[in-house]
Amino acid sequence: VLEGNVGYLRIDSIPDQEVLSQLGGFLVTHVWRQLMGSSALVLDLRHCTGGHVSSIPYLVSYLHPGGTVLHVDTIYNRPSNTTTELWTLPQVLGERYSADKDMVVLTSGHTRGVAEDIVYILKQMGRAIVVGERTKGSALELQKLRIGHSDFFLTLPVSRSLGPLGGGSQTWEGSGVLPCVGTPAEQALEKALGILTLRRALPQIIQRLEEALKNYYTLVSRVPALLHLLANMDFSAIVSEEDLVAKLNADLQAVSEDPRLLVRAIMPRENSPKPEPGANEQLGTLPAVPEDEAARQALVKSE
Predict the structure, then answer these.
(1) What CATH class is the domain 195-256?
(2) Where are the annotated segments for Disordered (predicted)?
(3) In a 3-state reduction of DSSP, which class is residue 273?
(4) What is the pTM of this model?
(5) Neighbour-count burial of 76, counting CB atoms closer than 10 A to its CB (0-12 exposed, 13-18 middle, 19+ buried)
(6) Could you tell me the fold of the domain covering 6-182?
(7) pLDDT single digits (tens) 37-91
């Protein structure tokens, strides 16, 4: 658990469903439970280069709300000529991570195969903000085949995704998964923590904005509609201060029909001039201004 109560989970390899089932109790007790009290989660897949298709529903299910099942992918396997639908699990061991909490997935150019499918699914679900680099665009499952009776082997894709979440034939294979926020892989965690800091501050920002509208906005009749807008605004796509300012201005002006209603982000002035040493002490030695008019005149003349 990082500063700001942000949970961090790094996965470099994804074992198959059988192994996960055997280790499930240990993983839930010693890893997953440690993250349940966090206010947001970072899933680091920057170094994940391998995995098994059977584990996709297992991992995604812990990040999907209970009570419903979701069709997340359909996998075609060429050797067996079979098609398998992948659905989230109706029940999981332990708790699911709350859908009300923000989640970021970190990626790099080394993120491959099953890890890419998981990233794509979470992105399509709207469950995670993807930060980092475009993923490898590798194959979902590879198999090494001997060429005849020679000492030569051919490695080729034998399974492919037919479209996560039933979204058609276009998938991440070959092209990779584009991040929501592109940044070099080595800077992805820092960038993610900055995004989560902004999102953690959103409730307070909106509260201050509501107070300002109620107390100062002159077009009083439009205030209730503006407050209703703020209370129901969707901030799921906000990943920067620029995004937030643009969304607030567009939506507030559309409802108020007032182009003068503007929100700005004002950064602290790092180079603001500092008071000279002793300035406060000098101010403290100035004589008090007398209340009597004649005395004030005498003070001005003496200065």
Answers:
(1) alpha beta
(2) 268-289
(3) coil
(4) 0.81
(5) middle
(6) 2-enoyl-CoA Hydratase; Chain A, domain 1 (3.90.226)
(7) 999 999 999 999 988 999 999 999 999 998 889 999 999 999 999 999 999 999 9
